[in-house]
Amino acid sequence: MGALPLSLTFPPDFLWGAAAAAYQVEGAAQEDGRTPSIWDTFSHTPGKTLGGDTGDVAVDHYHRFREDVRLMAQLGLGAYRFSVSWSRVQPTGRGPAVQRGLDFYRSLVDELLTAGIQPVLTLYHWDLPQELEDTGGWPARGTAERFAEYAGIVAEALGDRVDFWTTLNEPWCSAFLGYGSGVHAPGRTERLAPLRAAHHLNLAHGLGTQALRAALPARARIAISLNPSVVRPLTDSPQDLDAQRRIDALANRVFTGPLLRGAYPEDLLADTASLTDWSFVRDGDLAAIRQPLDALGINYYTPALVSAAAHDERPVRHDGHGASEHSPWPGSERVAFHRTPGERTEMGWTVDPTGLYELLMRYTREAPGVPLYITENGAAYDDKPEADGTVHDPLRIDYLRAHLTAAHRARADGADLRGYFLWSLMDNFEWAYGYSKRFGAVYVDYATLARTPKSSAHWYGRLARTGELV
């Protein structure tokens, strides 16, 4: 094999962006009619987040968005992927919108467009209105129906200015971490609820997509962002291969089966038969879920390594987002997760760009004709300012370079990959980890909320402007 070229080139129309989520950045938790989401309730519950941190202020993007957009423009970003706070727009999760809430997103979108930055809107990034959780949350069918109404409201307000829409971000986390392991809001630890939640999130995507298409111009693109897991067996024994199959069904095919093929996998139904007969899937649901996709978003951070658990072994409750004594894998609790080898980030996640390549090629095969976007990829490191105020993060640059090299290879091998969104634009509230983990390309001093682009931000900005990966 010859030497690798000094640089790799992405096409001029490749979309370079950065991503954020409403609860992680906005703050203003009680302003302009916003009511609590499940993450407000969860983070204010003692013991649920590290240090009792909450998103009440976060990084105050709600008040500082113009400064943040100027920063994006200075870095040369082509797109900003943000989410809408459902309870800021529809405080009870039903009924008419609060115009003050919508006005924030109107202003944000206008600011982005003026700066030449494409707005990429995610309708749901985990912050369900608390009132909807109180009536059952995602395990309840009505939540999917409410989501479709909410989607229509936001589409009516912003459809003339936003052309790229994402229904849900990482529904696996919402279903299995929120209702199974309990390490995410609303913190429920049940066995059947995650499966019901997964189905109703799928249904929400389908009904929401129908509502969006009814309200949006024909040019609009509609996607969903999944966090598919790269699941590898510890050995090639039949038992470990079966463990891999089980986790692949619960991590990946529980969503892509209905989304891409209009059916839940037969092996998933068999694995969970002791828990449910899946009678919560009603006639017409699968057809509603299987809506044509204009794009598929893929979020990737690290692979998983699994085996069958020995009879005297207590399986590791791995979910990638925190430890729990409760399993996020209903029907497959006897699968053991193992520490993957290699360099690790501050999250304890192995740096393995081959997993990103595998996912891009997998969904090139499984979703032929559907353009792919990497809608999240990044790493947390213990970034600290130098004496002169600069913040150098060479490990993050190495991480991004390696993963973008894998993405370039996938494009060369036939993946229709059209864009990449760095997670994340700024340091922010990292869910149950509070403010202890820094994923941002921009450093945030949490005492003053001052923003300082790290060396990775300048590196990524040059890439976004030139398309040259060096």
Automatic annotation (TrEMBL):
Organism superkingdom: Bacteria
Classification via Gene3D superfamilies: Glycosidases
Binding site for substrate: Q24, H125, N169, Y301, W423, E430, W431
GO cellular component, one term: cytosol
Region named Disordered: 312-336
Keywords: Carbohydrate metabolism, Cellulose degradation, Glycosidase, Hydrolase, Polysaccharide degradation
Basic and acidic residues bias (residue ranges): 312-324
One record GO biological process: cellulose catabolic process
Active site, UniProt feature: E170 (proton donor), E376 (nucleophile)
Swiss-Prot/TrEMBL catalytic activity: Hydrolysis of terminal, non-reducing beta-D-glucosyl residues with release of beta-D-glucose
GO MF terms held by the record: beta-glucosidase activity
InterPro entries assigned: GH, GH_1_N_CS, Glyco_hydro_1, Glyco_hydro_1_AS, Glyco_hydro_1_beta-glucosidase
Transmembrane stretches, start-end: none
EC number in record: 3.2.1.21
Homology family: Belongs to the glycosyl hydrolase 1 family.
Protein name: Beta-glucosidase
Organism this protein belongs to: Streptomyces palmae
Taxonomic lineage from the root: Bacteria, Bacillati, Actinomycetota, Actinomycetes, Kitasatosporales
